[in-house]
Every structure is written in C-alpha cells, then in structure tokens.
C-alpha cells in the first residue's frame, strides 16, 4: 500500500538541532579513522583482533559507511571485508545501493541472517549474484534489484550451473529452462526490480530469453509487494502479469511500465487480492502528456469492481481519472433538499462507484483531475495545492520520472508563490535525491528547490544534520553529473549560501576536487568559471596551513595560473581575473609549497604581463601585490624576486595611491622582506638598496595611521620577524607601523592576537634598543600604551555574507 504521508496544516515542524548521540559520534570517529582499526588482507580489510560489533551496531555501521564515506564507492579501496567474519559483525540489512560491492563480496555478506537486501544500481555486480542472494533464503524478506544491466545479465550468470541446464542436457523428464526458479526465497515478501529494458540486447540476447514472470516472480509464492517500476518489457510479458497466481499479493507497482498497453491493463483485473495498485506513467515518451486509454471511465470502473480490497490507487500521468462532468444548470429558485438524488453532485473520480480511498495518485492526470472537488480519497497527489505537491515528493521518492515532475511543481511554487512547510519539503527533496543519484533530472530539479530553502526565510532553522545531508546531496549530484551545466550551476549557487569554509570543512578535500574538475572542463563558461573561483577563494580564506596545502596539492595554483594566462592572452580584465589573483593570494598565505608552485608556473611573468596590460586596475594591483608579499616571505624565493625589473615595479608602487594605501602598503611589505636579508643579498645596482630604504620610509610617513584595511591576518609571524630586523630600519618601520595601524583600527580582532604571539614583548625590546629610529620607537610605544589601556576581548572573526549573483535553474520545467 502506498505510504500515507501526513501533511501538517499551517505548521512547519522542524527537528531539534541537538548534538549527535554518543553512539553516533563514536561511529563517525571510527569511520573518520577507520584504517587505524583495520588490517589489510589480500583483497580488502578486516577488523583488528579483539574488535567486535554486535548486531544492531553492525547495521548502523554499514549504513553510515554507505552514506557518509567513500570507502564503499571505489573498487580499489573498499572495506567490505570487515563484515566477512560473522563472529565479529552481524548484519540484518544490506543497504548497498550505489556502492561498488562485487559479487564475491556479496557472497560473504549474504551469509549473515539478512532480512533486507538493496543492491540496485551497484555497477560492480557482474558475477553470479543470484547464488549469493539465495544463501539468505531462510531470513530474507525484502529484495531490491535493478539498474546498470544487472538483471538483464542473469541468464549468462547462470550458464554452466547444472541446476539450470537445458532440457536436452537433463533428459526428457527434466524441468525446462522456463519452468526453473531463479530465486529460491520461500519467505520473500517484497520484491523490487527496477530499470530493466527488454528491448536492449545484452551480449546479443534480449531479456525475454529469461522469462521474467515464470522464472523470477511466479515462484515467489509468499510475495505481498511487487514493484516493477521503469521496467521496459515486451507486450507478452506485460499481459502475463495479470496471471501471476500469487495468493498473498497485496501491492503491485507498475509505474512507467504499461505505456498505454490496453490488454495488459485489462488483465490486471484478475489480481483480485490487491489493496494497492500503481499504473502511473511519468516518463517523457509522451512529451509530458497523460497516457490516453480508450473508455477510461469504464476501465477504471472495471478495475475497482474486480478488486474489493483496493484502497490505494495511483493513476498519475494517465486519463483514467476520466473527465470532469459538465456542470448542470438549474433555473429553479428554491434550494436543493438533502433528500434529492446525490448523483446531481459532481463526482471527483468518475468510475469510482462510491469507493473511498486512503490514497489516490492524480499527478499530471488528464483534465487536471487533482483540481476537482469531491475527490474520494484522504490523501491525493497532484499540483493543485502545496499539500498535494509535497505528498507527491514524498510518495514518489523511488519513481524518478514522477518525482521529477513533483520537484518541478515544487520549484515553481517556491519561485512564484509561497511554500509554508519548508522542513517537509527539505526532507522530501533530500530523500528523493539520495534514492536517485543516477538520474540527472531528479538531481537538477531537486537542487533547484534546495536553493530556495537554503537561502529562504527559514534557513536558520535547518539543523546541522540536515545541512550535511544537503551538502552531501549536492556533492553527489555534481560529482556524477559534471557535464550538466545546470546541475553545476545550481549546486554552486546553493553552496554559496552556506558558511564557507566552516560548514564544509568535513568534506573539504572532496569539494575542492569537484570544483577544480569543474573548472578544468568549463574554461569557456563564464558563470561557472566565476562562481567556481569564488567558492575556491572562500575555501582558501579563514583556514590553516593544512587546508591551504590541500588546495595546492589538488591543483588550485595551476588552474588559477592557466585562467590568468587565458585572460591576458585575450586582453580581458574582469572579476574573474581579479578573483584568480585573490585566490592565489589566499592560497599562498604562509604556505611555502604553494608559493613555490606559483613561481614554477611562471608566476612572475604573469605578474608583469598583468601589470603592463592593466596598470590602472586598483583591485587587481592590490591582489597581485598581496600575493607578492607572500612570495617575499619565503626566504629561498627572494633571489627570484631580486630582479631589476621586478624591484623597479615594486619601488614605483610605493608612491601609488590606488585603492587607498593598499598597493603602496603591499609593495613596501615585499621590499621590506627583500631588505631583511644581508646587504650582500641585494644583487642589483638600480634601484640601490639605500634608495629603496629611503623611499619606503617616505611612503610610510604619508600613510594615515587610521587607514581602513582590506586585509586579514591569521598570524603576525612574518611581521614580527621584521620587527626584529635591526639591519634594515625601513623593514622594521613597516612592521611596527602595520601593528600600530591594525591594533588601533581593528582592536577587537588584533590586540589579543598580538599579545598571544608575543608581540608586546618584542615591541618593549624595540623601545629600549638604541638602534631603531625615533619614529619606530614612538609607534612601538603607542601600540603598547593602547593595548595596556584597554581590556582586550578574545578575537572574533565575522565573515560577511556574500551572495553570488545568478539565477537558479530547473532543467525540467
């Protein structure tokens, strides 16, 4: 029977945003450090001696492995082996959809006392998985198969098995191939076979060579629920479904199966025990038009009459709901009495013969059936109301074509009307996207509505757990459907509304890899290029060295450099070029390996080319000089900067007034680091070392001490190094001025940081040392007095919300 989803009228009830249970925390810790608890075997891993998981915990562990890690997604690095030993683990469920489980691994897993198995869309199952499943014949109740030619190959998987040999090999009295049962599962209650195609040849043979009805379904006499969603079968097989002879069958789902086959629909009337029947149609073979059956009212009436227990019926995407009767016009003035014939009332479902249903599926039915009054059902799917749409989203989570239509209606409601129950919408979208990762239409349509929830008026009520599910769904979709620009656009725009980088630190590596892969593919897509770089730049901000190294190792420096080269070649200075330099500035911050990568990519040539081509672009120059400051902090790279042309550019920038003091300040910082080395390291004659020192001092004297800054320091380490540079008073002057400016303009942020890193002690030494010039000592004393006269609060970093301009897209409107 169809799941009955309860819509909360006028209430949007959200789960409590509470911490995870201790058990869940321990499981996540185990998964995050899983290889510390495992030993390598020839083909997988096993638990170290002494580690045991009881039955309930084993099921939870496997479920978390499937949904929260990549350890079961890759054939080269999976950990299925930890469940091979039933003495240390005990499973009752195998929720392995979309994993890389192989038939060999499945043979061990099926030795557990399993009640449920889901191996739909498992691409690596290519061996004799039938034998594996039959091992669980005593306990198995629920089985889900299909996808990736899995079921179609069953004939060839059975070749060579004596049990399934041909009649000629076994003699006249042997069972024929069409009569032998493939699955020996006497206690199986629910069977789902999805996405098989009888019209696609597998190894040169069609699926009809494995009689679906005779060898797979009919022998399962205990079946109560059968789901054949999206199975494309020949007419002969469709007609045989009415002759299943399954005495306990209560639920039959044939969504996207009949495709208008009249005789198959009529034959279903023989299944008199059904309580739920689904003959809906959602695929786009009819160009989104409902499937047309002749005499729809008569056919529906025959179905209902033949199934006395039927209380749940889905006829979405068809004309079986009939057509609304023409309103009768009455010219009498008196009111109708209650005793008059009720047939005068409009009938919401012609052919229902007064039957009242618990559930009716009327999404995309002919003549807007879901808009009618007097529909004889407690729950109805359709597009008339928010309740109908959300019910469709929840009920159709395993029916991708109908789910996509439900998502489309929900998207339009978010965009043009008001959705009241955001939490129910969110849970329905996430469930549908998680269950249909392979379907690009589901992912695109679902992500379009996620965008409106994540940025909507109730975004603050989204729990920590829900946020992680949203991020996980988006990354799964972007990873699987990289070629779909609409999917990438929706994913990036939605991710922009999270608090980056903090809310994505748990999946930092994966997100970086996906964004870089996207940028490598889409140099010519201006919007994806812009938003991808924006996200990478956000990921490079406010993170420590480990994460910056990850950015460098995955290729951010190379990608940014290549994009800059293309912009220079095309003589284009735009936001993309500016953010590329900003990203490089952030990525190289106190990260020597990334500075080296930049220089290896010909970074200084890029610097000169951009400067010569766009000398008046203030934002660009500020970002470029900020990056140069990071390069200059790496001592072994300073010799590469000691070039007459480079130093001349840096020195001339000292007089710049572009972007306030930023360009001049950054130029002084670069030169200050060059001057901090021994005098003999200054290997160029012009400009001379003394000339540069003099011009730095003059520049600093021009800067207003209360200047607002467009910079963010996580550490004062490089500046404090220059505070101790007594051999170059210009370098020391720049460093002390920087500390004075930052602590006075942004005291909440930088006073405590300076104290924590020992800056006050260094400045005290400067004030007592005879070598610094008076201007340096005065600034040092000013910093010390200012900090001592105020109560410093712990630093707090506020990341301003930045909205990436762009419209969300729904690819299936």
Q: Can you give the mean pLDDT?
A: 86
Radius of gyration: 34 Å
Q: Could you tell me the number of beta strands?
A: 12
- For the record, the CATH architecture of the domain at 642-799 stands as Alpha Horseshoe
Percentage of residues in helical conformation: 40-55%
Q: Distance N terminus to C terminus?
A: 30 Å
Count of runs of 4 or more consecutive helical residues: 33
Largest sheet: 10 strands, parallel
What would you call the shape? elongated
Helix/strand structural class: mainly alpha
Biggest sheet: strand arrangement: 3-4-5-6-7-8-9-10-11-12
- Low-pLDDT residue intervals, each spanning 5 or more residues: 1-5, 155-178, 328-332, 338-344, 792-805
Enter the CATH topology name of the domain at 642-799.
Leucine-rich Repeat Variant
CATH domain class of the domain at 642-799: Mainly Alpha
Work out the strand percent: 5-15%
């Amino acid at each position: 029977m169809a799941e009955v989803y309860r819509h909360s009228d006028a209430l949007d009830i959200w789960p409590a945003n509470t911490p995870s249970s201790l058990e869940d925390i321990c499981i996540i810790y185990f998964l995050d450090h899983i290889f510390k608890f495992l030993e390598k075997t020839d083909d997988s891993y096993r638990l170290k001696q002494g580690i045991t998981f009881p039955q309930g915990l084993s099921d939870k562990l496997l479920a978390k492995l499937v949904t929260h890690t990549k350890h079961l997604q890759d054939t080269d690095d999976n950990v299925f082996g930890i469940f091979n030993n039933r003495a240390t683990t005990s499973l009752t469920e195998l929720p392995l959809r979309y994993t890389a489980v192989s038939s060999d691994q499945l043979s061990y897993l099926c030795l557990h006392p399993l009640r449920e198995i889901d191996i739909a869309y498992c691409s690596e199952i290519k061996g004799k998985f039938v034998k594996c499943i039959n091992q669980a014949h005593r306990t198995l109740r629920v089985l889900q198969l299909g996808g990736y030619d899995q079921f179609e190959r069953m004939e060839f998987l059975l070749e060579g098995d004596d049990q399934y040999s041909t009649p000629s090999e076994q003699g006249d009295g042997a069972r024929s191939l069409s009569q032998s049962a493939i699955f020996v599962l006497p206690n199986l209650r629910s069977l789902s076979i999805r996405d098989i195609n009888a019209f696609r040849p597998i190894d040169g043979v069609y699926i009809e060579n494995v009689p679906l009805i005779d060898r797979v379904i009919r022998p399962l006499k205990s079946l109560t629920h059968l789901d054949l969603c999206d199975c494309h079968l020949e007419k002969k097989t469709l007609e045989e479904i009415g002759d299943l002879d399954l005495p306990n069958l209560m639920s039959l789902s044939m969504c996207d199966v009949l495709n208008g086959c009249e005789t198959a629909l009529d034959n279903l009337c023989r299944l008199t025990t059904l309580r739920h029947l689904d003959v809906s149609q959602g695929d786009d073979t009819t160009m989104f038009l409902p499937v047309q059956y002749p005499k729809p009212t008569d056919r529906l009436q025959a179905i209902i009459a033949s199934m006395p227990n039927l209380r749940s019926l889905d006829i979405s995407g068809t004309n079986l709901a009939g057509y609304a009767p023409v309103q009768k016009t009455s010219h009498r003035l008196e009111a109708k009495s209650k005793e008059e014939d009720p047939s005068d009332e409009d009938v919401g479902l012609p052919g229902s013969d007064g039957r009242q249903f618990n559930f009716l599926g009327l999404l995309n039915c002919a003549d807007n059936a879901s808009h009618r009054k007097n529909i004889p059902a407690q729950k109805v799917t359709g597009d008339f109301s928010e309740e109908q749409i959300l019910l469709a989203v929840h009920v159709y989570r395993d029916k991708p074509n109908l789910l996509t239509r439900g998502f489309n209606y929900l998207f339009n409601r978010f965009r043009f009307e008001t959705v009241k129950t955001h939490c129910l919408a969110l849970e329905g979208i996430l469930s549908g996207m998680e269950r249909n990762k392979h379907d690009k239409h589901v992912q695109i349509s679902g992500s379009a509505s996620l965008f409106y929830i994540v940025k909507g008026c109730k975004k603050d009520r989204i729990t920590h757990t829900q946020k992680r599910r949203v991020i996980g769904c988006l990354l799964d979709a972007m990873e699987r459907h990289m070629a779909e620009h609409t999917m990438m656009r929706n994913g990036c725009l939605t991710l922009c509304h999270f608090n980056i980088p903090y809310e994505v630190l748990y999946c930092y590596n994966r997100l970086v890899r996906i964004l870089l892969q996207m940028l490598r593919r889409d140099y010519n897509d201006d919007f994806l290029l812009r938003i991808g770089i924006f996200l990478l730049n956000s990921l490079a901000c406010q993170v420590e060295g480990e994460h910056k190294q990850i950015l460098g190792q995955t290729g951010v420096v190379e990608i940014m450099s290549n994009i800059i080269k293309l912009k220079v070649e095309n003589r284009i200075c735009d936001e993309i070029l500016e953010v590329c330099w900003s990203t490089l500035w952030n990525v190289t911050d106190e990260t020597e390996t990334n500075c080296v990568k930049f220089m290896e990519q010909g970074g200084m040539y890029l610097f000169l080319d951009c400067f010569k081509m766009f000398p008046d672009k203030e934002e660009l120059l500020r970002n470029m000089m900020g990056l140069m400051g990071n390069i200059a902090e790496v001592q072994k790279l300073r010799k590469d900067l000691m070039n007459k042309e480079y130093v001349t550019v840096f020195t001339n920038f000292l007089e710049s007034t572009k972007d306030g003091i930023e360009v001049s300040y950054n130029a002084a910082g670069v030169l200050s680091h060059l001057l901090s080395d021994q005098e003999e390291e200054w290997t160029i004659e012009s400009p001379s070392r003394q000339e540069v020192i003099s011009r730095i001092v003059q520049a600093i004297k021009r800067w207003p001490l209360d200047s607002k800054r467009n910079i963010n320091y996580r550490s004062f380490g490089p500046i404090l190094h220059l505070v101790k540079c007594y051999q170059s008073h210009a370098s020391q002057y720049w460093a002390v001025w920087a500390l004075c400016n930052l602590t006075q303009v942004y005291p909440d942020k930088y006073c405590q940081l300076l104290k924590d890193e020992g800056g006050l002690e260094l400045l005290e030494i400067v004030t007592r040392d005879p070598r610094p010039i008076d201007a340096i000592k005065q600034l040092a004393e000013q910093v010390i007095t200012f900090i001592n006269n105020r109560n410093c609060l712990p630093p707090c970093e506020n990341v301003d919300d930045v909205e990436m301009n762009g419209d969300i897209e729904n690819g299936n409107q």
